[in-house]
Amino acid sequence: MSGVPGANPLRDAQDRRLPRIAGPSGLVIFGVTGDLSRKKLMPAVYDLANRGLLPPGFSLIGFARRDWEDEDFAQVVHDAVKEHSRTPFREEVWQQLSQGMRFVQGNFDDDDAFETLRSTIEELDKAQGTGGNFAFYLSVPPKFFPKVVQQLKKHGLADQKEGSWRRAVIEKPFGHDLGSAQELNQLVHDVFPPNEVFRIDHYLGKETVQNILALRFANTMWEPIWNRSYVDHVQITMAEDIGIGGRAGYYDGIGAARDVIQNHLLQLLALTAMEEPGSFHPKALVAEKLKVLTAVELPEDLGSHTVRGQYTHAWQGGQEVPGYLEEDGIDPKSKTDTFAAIKLTINNRRWAGVPFYLRTGKRLGRRVTEIAVVFKRAPYLPFESGATEELGGNALVIRVQPDEGVTVRFGSKVPGTSMEVRDVTMDFAYGESFTESSPEAYERLILDVLLGDANLFPRHQEVELSWNILDPIEEYWDKHGKPARYAAGTWGPAEADDMLARDGRSWRRP
Amino acid sequence: MKIDLTETTSSKINQALISARRDIGSPAVGMVLTLVIVTDEENAYDALKAANDSSREHPSRIIVVIKRVSRSPRARRDARLDAEIRVGSDAGSGETVVLRLHGELANHAQSVVLPLLLPDAPVVAWWPEDAPADPAKDPLGALAQRRITDTYSAEHPLDELSVRAATYRPGDTDLAWTRITPWRSMLAAALDQQPAQVISATVEGESDNPSCELLAMWLADRLGVPVERTLSGGPGLTAVRLETKNGVIVLDRPDGSLATLCMAGQPDRAVALKRRETAELLAEELRRLDPDNIYESTVKFGVERLGGPTEASSVGSGQKRQEPAGAAAPAAKKAAAKKAASK
Fold first, then answer.
1. Closest Cα partner for A46 from A436, A446, A453?
2. Where would I find the Glucose-6-phosphate dehydrogenase assembly protein OpcA N-terminal domain in this sequence (chain B) (predicted)?
3. Using only C-alpha atoms, what is the Rg of chain A?
4. Do domains B2-149 and B181-342 have the same CATH topology?
5. Which pTM does this prediction carry?
6. Mean pLDDT, chain B, as a whole number?
7. Cα end-to-end distance, chain A, whole Å
8. What is the edge-to-edge ordering of all strands in the sheet holding B227-231?
9. SS3 content of chain A, % helix, strand, coil (to 5)
10. Distance (Å) from the C-alpha of residue A458 to the closest C-alpha of chain B?
11. At the topology level of CATH, where does B181-342 sit?
C-alpha cells in the first residue's frame, strides 16, 4: 500500500496486468532513411506505442542527410508503419506518436546539425516532457561510428545529467577482430559509460531464444540429461537462402564467420551451454555466459575441424542465381567465406568431450536457425538385428526461426506385426500459434533500452571473448588454402560433411 | 472443416474431433487451454467470434455451451445433445465445439463438457451474459480454474458488482475490470513520473458502467484517499483526476479513443486509450490464469463505500475543482489485512 515512502502506491508486484511502461524518454535514430530503420525500428516503435508500452510524450527524432521537414519525416514513418507494423494501424496511436516526431537534417561532420539536434532535444523536453532521457540509435555503417560518437560528445549530447540518462544503441558488427572490437569499445565507452551502451544482437530479442532459458531452467526433465553423459554433440545452424544482395561493400572481406558466428552463434552456444545463473539479474546472467565462453576451446588441427566455403553459380529453388564471385562489386579473386563451419569444445565438467558444431552460410537450402542437441544412442538395444536400423540418436531441436518451436525426436514402433523402430518427432509449435501476437525482436529490445534493462544485450566482455575464439580461425584461414566451393541452394560444401564424418557424425538436414 | 452431429454424446464428439484432425493432417496439437463459453443462441455468434480471434494468441479448444429453451413439457422431457465441430481454418487456431443442449440435459451441461476438456490443460469458463451468482459453485464454473464474468452486461451492474464481491473465489475475474487495464497502467505511469502523495481522486464516466466503479474502488483501495465518482455522457470512462500535493493529474478521454494527460509543471500529452474489442479483452484475460489478487482487493472494497455517483462533468475540462463529497474513508489498513489473509 502507500506505506513505503517514494514507492508508487498504484504499483504492486502482484498486479501483473500492468505492463512495464518506459519512463519519459525519446529515441534518436541516426541513419533513419536506411532499410533497417524503415522496416524494423519505426514499426517496432509504433507497435510498442500501440501496445501502450511507451510513455506519454515519447519522442522520435530522425537524423539523416535528406532535406526533409518534420512533416516529410512523419509521412515516411507513417508509410513504414502502415506497411511493416505487426499490429493494426490505429489513428489515435498515430496521433499520440506523431506529436513527438522531429527531423534533423545534416551530415555526421556537420556541427550545426548537431547543435540543431541539441536544441531539438531541449525543445522536446519542454513540449513533450521527455525529461532529458534520450537513446541514440546508431543505425549507420561502421565507418561512421567514430564520427557520430565523437560528435555526440563534442556537442554535449552524451552528458549524463543528474536524474536523467543518455544511452547509445549500436548494431553489429562490433569490430572485425579482437583489436578493432577493443578499439571500438574504448571509443564508445569514452563517451558513454559501459552500462549505458546497448549492443543490439536482434537474435537475443527473439522469443524462442528467450525460451531457451525457460526450457532449460524452468523444467526438470532436461537438466539431468543436459551434460556429457547423455549428449553426444550439439549442432547450431543458421542458414540463409539469400545471397549477399546489395551488401557487397560490407560483406566482402568480412565473411560468414565474422558476420554470424562471432555474435549470433556464439551467443546461442553460450545460452545452450551455460550453467544456471543465480538469478536473471543482468550481472548474474552475464557472469555465466562469460564463464562458458572462457571455457570454449578450439580444435588443435584447425585444418580438419573447420571449413569455409563460397557459393557458386547454380539453380536455387527454381531460380538461376549467380555465384559469389560473380556478384556485383565482388573481387573475382575474393577469398571471403560465405559458408563457415567450426567445431568447438567446452572445457568444463558438464561438457568435456562434447563437440559443438557451428555452421552458417548464405545461399543454403532454406532459411533456418536451429539448435539441435543430439543425444547418445541407447547403450544396449534388446531388439533383433535390423529392427533399429532406421533409428537415429534422440534429439531436442530448438527451432529459432522460422516456424519457432521445439521438436523432440525419439524412436517409436512402426505399426505392424514385426518389431521395427523408427524416428518420430513431437512438436511444440510456437510460430504457428503465437506469431501474430509475439512481439518482434526489435520491439522488445527497444523497450529494454528505454527501461535500461541490459539482459538481452551482449556486453563488451562477451564481444571481446567471442573475437578471442574466432580470431585464430580467421588467421588460419588467411594463411592456408582457399574456400571450398558449393553450389547455391545446397547445404554447403562436401568438405563440411567430411568434417563431421571424420568424427563419425553427420549434419542434420534442418 | 465443419461436422454436424445430432443426438450425439461426448464420446462421439471426441471421436469426431480426432478423425477431423487426422483428415486435415495435423495430428499434433499445441493447444494451451480449454475455453468454455456458456451462453444462449443470441449471444453465441459474437462470443465465439471474439474467442476465435483471441485464439490466435492462445490456441485453445473452445467449447460453446448453448442451453436451448424448451417451450413445452414434451420438449423438456426430450433431452438431446447436438454438436457442431469446427477444426482447421474455420476455428481460428484451435478447435471449436458448439454444443446445443435440449430439454433436461440443459441442467447437466457439466456432464457433457467434462469429457471434452483437454487433458492436463487449464480450463477457463466465460459467461458473456447472465453469469451465475456464484460462478465457482456453478457446475460448469467448478470445472474451471478461471471464471470470467462481465458485469457490464448485467441489468443492474452495481448490484452485480456487490454480488461478485460477496461470492469471490480465487480465479474469478470480470471483463469490466479488464477494460480498465490501460487506464490503470497510464495512471501508474503518471505517478511514476511524478511521485507525489495523492490527496483525493475523481472518476468520471457514464452511468451503469461498472468499470468506472472498479477504477474508483481501485484508486480508493490503493491510495487510501476519498474517491468521488461523477457522471458524464460517456462513452465509457471519460476522465480521472488525481489531486496531489504537487498539483493535479488529469487523464481526460472525451471521445473514447485519444486521451490527454495533463500534469502540473509538464506539457499536456496525447495518449492513445482506445476502447478495446471483446477479443482483445479476452486475450488479456487468458494471458494469466493465476488468481488476480488486485481484482479481489478492489471488488471487495465495496461499491457502497464509494457513496454513489454525483451528477457533474467538469472533471475532464479541469477548470472547476470538485470538492469530494460522499467520500470513501481511507481503508489502507483494512485492505492490507484482507490481502494478507487471502494469501
1. A446
2. 51-165
3. 25
4. no
5. 0.81
6. 83
7. 53
8. B269-272, B258-263, B247-252, B237-244, B198-205, B227-231, B310-311
9. 35, 20, 40
10. 29
11. Dihydrodipicolinate Reductase; domain 2 (3.30.360)
The second-level CATH assignment, the architecture, of A26-171 is 3-Layer(aba) Sandwich (3.40)
Position A257, amino acid: A
pLDDT digits (tens, 9 = 90+) for B258-304: 889 998 878 888 888 888 889 889 988 988 888 999 999 999 998 88
- State whether the Cα torsion B134-B140-B145-B146 is positive or negative: negative
Cell numbers representing residue B256 in the block? 473514447
Chain B positions touching A52 (Cβ under 8 A) are 182, 185-186, 272
* Contact (Cβ atoms closer than 8 angstroms) between residue A471 and residue A177: yes
Helix (H, G, I), strand (E, B) or coil at A94: helix
CB contact under 8 A, B261 and A17: no
Q: Which residues of B touch A89 (CB under 8 A)?
A: none
Kindly list the domain boundaries of chain B, sorted by start residue.
2-149, 181-342
The ipTM estimated for the assembled molecules is 0.71
A9, B185: Cβ pair inside 8 Å? no
For A420-471, the three-class secondary structure string (H helix, E strand, C coil) is: CEEEEEEEEEHHHHHCCCCCCHHHHHHHHHHHCCCCCCCCHHHHHHHHHHHH
- Order of all β-strands in the sheet with B172-174: B2-5, B80-87, B95-102, B60-67, B33-39, B123-126, B146-149, B172-174
Looking at chain A, the number of H-run helices and the number of E-run strands are 17, 18
CATH number of B2-149: 3.40.50
Question: Three-state SS for A392?
Answer: coil
Is residue B299 within 8 A of residue B177, CB to CB? The reply is yes
Q: Domain A205-501 falls in which CATH fold? A: Dihydrodipicolinate Reductase; domain 2 (3.30.360)
For residue A285, what is its C-alpha cell?
546472467
CA angle B13, B15, B65 (to 5 degrees): 15
Question: Any idea where the domains of chain A sit in the sequence?
Answer: 26-171, 205-501
Catalytic residues of A, which ones?
A: 264
